[in-house]
Design brief:
Two copies of one chain form a homodimer.
Chain A: E1 2-9, E2 14-19, E3 22-27, H1 33-41, E4 47-56, E5 71-82, H2 100-105, H3 107-110, H4 114-136, E6 140-141, E7 147-148, E8 159-161, E9 168-171, H5 176-184, E10 189-197, E11 209-218, H6 222-236, E12 250-252, H7 253-260, E13 274-277, E14 280-285, H8 296-309, E15 314-320, E16 326-328, E17 344-349, H9 353-370, E18 381-385, E19 390-392, E20 400-402, E21 429-434, E22 437-444, H10 449-459, H11 468-474, E23 481-487, H12 488-495, H13 526-531
Parallel strand pairs in A: 3-5, 6-10, 12-18
Antiparallel strand pairs in A: 1-2, 1-4, 2-3, 4-5, 7-9, 8-9, 10-11, 11-23, 13-14, 14-17, 15-16, 15-17, 18-21, 19-20, 21-22, 22-23
Chain lengths: 535, 535
Amino acid sequence: MTGWIQHSRLNNKFILLRDKTGHVQLIADRIDEDAFKPLKNANLESSICIEGTVIPRPEGQANSKIATGLIEVQVDSVKVVNPARSNLPFYIKPFNQANEALRLKYRYLDLRHIWMQNNLKMRSDITLKMRNFLADNGFTEVETPSLFRRTPGGAREFIVPTHVEGQFYSLVQSPQQFKQLLMAGGLGKYFQIARCYRDEGSRPDRQPEFTQVDIELAFSNCERIQTLIEELLRSCWPDSRAIPSEPFPRLTYQDCMEKYGTDKPDLRFDNQIQHVSPSIMALGFEKSQFAEEISKSSGRAIEKLVKNQFPGVIVSYFEKTIENTVICSASKFLPADARLSGDLGVITVSEDKNASLSALGKVRQIMSENYLVTKENDLKFCWVVDFPLFLPKENGQSGLQSAHHPFTRPHDEDIDLLETEPEKIRGQHYDLVLNGQEIGGGSIRIHESHVQKLVLEEILKEDTTELDHMIEALNSGCPPHGGIALGLDRLVAIICKARSIRDVIAFPKTTGGKDLMSGSPAEIKKEDKDFYHIK
Amino acid sequence: MTGWIQHSRLNNKFILLRDKTGHVQLIADRIDEDAFKPLKNANLESSICIEGTVIPRPEGQANSKIATGLIEVQVDSVKVVNPARSNLPFYIKPFNQANEALRLKYRYLDLRHIWMQNNLKMRSDITLKMRNFLADNGFTEVETPSLFRRTPGGAREFIVPTHVEGQFYSLVQSPQQFKQLLMAGGLGKYFQIARCYRDEGSRPDRQPEFTQVDIELAFSNCERIQTLIEELLRSCWPDSRAIPSEPFPRLTYQDCMEKYGTDKPDLRFDNQIQHVSPSIMALGFEKSQFAEEISKSSGRAIEKLVKNQFPGVIVSYFEKTIENTVICSASKFLPADARLSGDLGVITVSEDKNASLSALGKVRQIMSENYLVTKENDLKFCWVVDFPLFLPKENGQSGLQSAHHPFTRPHDEDIDLLETEPEKIRGQHYDLVLNGQEIGGGSIRIHESHVQKLVLEEILKEDTTELDHMIEALNSGCPPHGGIALGLDRLVAIICKARSIRDVIAFPKTTGGKDLMSGSPAEIKKEDKDFYHIK
């Protein structure tokens, strides 16, 4: 038996041995002093190997609550195979965890925690089940390159200099182009559990490299892809009963915004936005939804938080009296006959409908994260569909940009609007949302080269030379196709009930992109700089 | 039924439809002219969708040699779902393949070849079988980062600039450090099918990014790891009967060099190097080993080729007469009583034993690749063991370098030589060789921090600050461990009988590291250069 010394009481030759599955008590009172000596001198966390006999614990010491609670091991021989130094930066305890920076710097110690072992095991199990499910359904896993070239639009991509001055690879932000090229290549059904890269700076709970479950298939449609993903999730979920057996609800983007003020609605709560009048909306909650009574000051705090993010919107906390009268600092705006549902909540007043909706979406999110009671295994999936294909450019620039990416196919009914009113077109895009978090997104792609050219050149005003190979590929008899990508880190984190995706990644980087363990990123040698023409 | 128009004879409404599994004949003589028109106008390689009835071929037209040779499809309706342009750069034919540059530029067309579809499918099947085998044996697949920091020694690593001036990631050349850190982290049994990166310039049949099957276990030994890999290969080989059921032979490095002149011996041929005298060696072949009679000029050509690579070695072709007399231009060096085995071959004369051995190793390789008959499914695996741990530095520098990497553990018997005669130490390293190609390599690693420090600081003279985290990890009760990495691209290429690893990679780069399809690497925008502080 091998493991680490978790705890010891040397006076009575008691050792608590830990391995990746749990703990066991060792009693070493029958081996002689010389044989015991190395163990006596070994620090906690030393790696040891013992032989012994499993015996029942003495009467009164049994603990039926833990797996090894009824037994202990009478040690016959022991070897300290690799001693640990004294004063490790932290020890492996169920409580009193070290702060995250220390955990990341000494990740090899942190990984010894049983919950970290379980998270990694769970991740491995889930991906293997996914692979087997997809293979059983006729999919081929194909590895696509990560050293690629710049993709117009989208996230900032890391660059990789080559020894030829001025020539750079870019690290792929997703296998999007490759999977479509595989469809042109006749692959039919593709998947990959793919590493992707985005240089998004310091966004919380994002990593510069992340993993997505990437799927594409020819001759399919939105409905069939959504059903496939529902079955995929059922096949890999540790407790498949937790997932509803009926199809996940499909909500239109428009509906989501009107009812929940977000395209990632948390459906564990019914609470929908109430449209009191064109400029007044409300979001109410029942007192029974709260874990404990919410104070007026919490209400005011939410009011203030949201107000700051939506400066043009009047946000006001309301509460109902026993007589059902609404008490609200902005009550002068409320019509006399306004009937707000919910015991308490927030009203917004604004001429800007979208701002009001987003503000109340934010209130819903804050409430669900901080105050509302959720059932532990409550999984509320939904598909959000019918997104607009294009959105106005950000930062006040004129023109349109893709809501998702330039390869998304317009709704069949809307395709005629391409040359006239592109801003009205709905895309054949679908997002998968679980408990208010986006865990995947996909679309049917444009397969006609002339449509793709029109979108890129006429609407998005992109230089298509960087995408010539895509247009050429569509123009060589590429079958119609579509697909999806699921965010594996997020999905596994939800399944493991982890607080952060960093708890389901073996060696994550900090929010700032640093590997605290190895000290990466780091300086490089001058000769490497010279080789890659870095000044 | 969906597929591509492979061939058509429009006068008699005959279409050959291709999908990823093969071909089928379509007869469209029962649909009316209007319905047939789109098909008539469609170019070859257009993507079509048909409905029809499977019927037997007319008498005399059956072809029992192909899977669909007994039937054809009577077309009821047809839709051209995406037409191909005319004059595609090449068409999908079993023979007359386009040159590789064209195949790579239009990879999406090239992938439509059935053998490419089969290669990708085979790769997907093999990796899934490997994953299932390893999971069944208690291994956890862990994804480790590719954005890392410079590793001292080893291959040239790509660098990835960050937005902080002077700070760079390096792309991992292998997960070596991470897998050892996972062992320190108590994972026990790790694997990963891992993307790795090396900037090795223009080496034929190498790729800047490649895939390895990466494995590491705690508390193991060479023998157990070798057995595990033998079982792994049997579990994933398409025809497991092709692999011997008994353990693969273990050859020492010393033996390999003396007998085969290489540490990657091709054991499909017995032919061993004959040590005639300390300065004369020979390698002979039987005439029966050749596919066709080998001419004297071929012999001279080999002689010349090898001579050029080993300038200090006299290389001379020999042939035996019917009377068993050796005819050889260097026969004056041969002792009168020399009995060379083989009907013909090469002798070398040199005071430099190693140069002679390597020259004859090269002769063996040229012969096996070009002249000798091999049985199609002959798989000759072997393990090469007992490599020297250190080698003299290259380029005439004084001092030692690691034969493989600095984490390899010395043989237990040799460990005392570390401080006295390190050049004599054998490492616990093992290479897996198949038919003369190295398909994997691994070792037991150093688990004691003081030994690792000694190797790095005293013998290799490396700056250990870049490896502090490794030494710290060993010093925190890291269990003994070892592992291996198999080259997946090469392994799959051998299984698929592909001419190059590029034929088992969906989107490979050229020898010069270029993606001819997308034109990567490419120039980047000035704003990206500025962001990453590139001049």
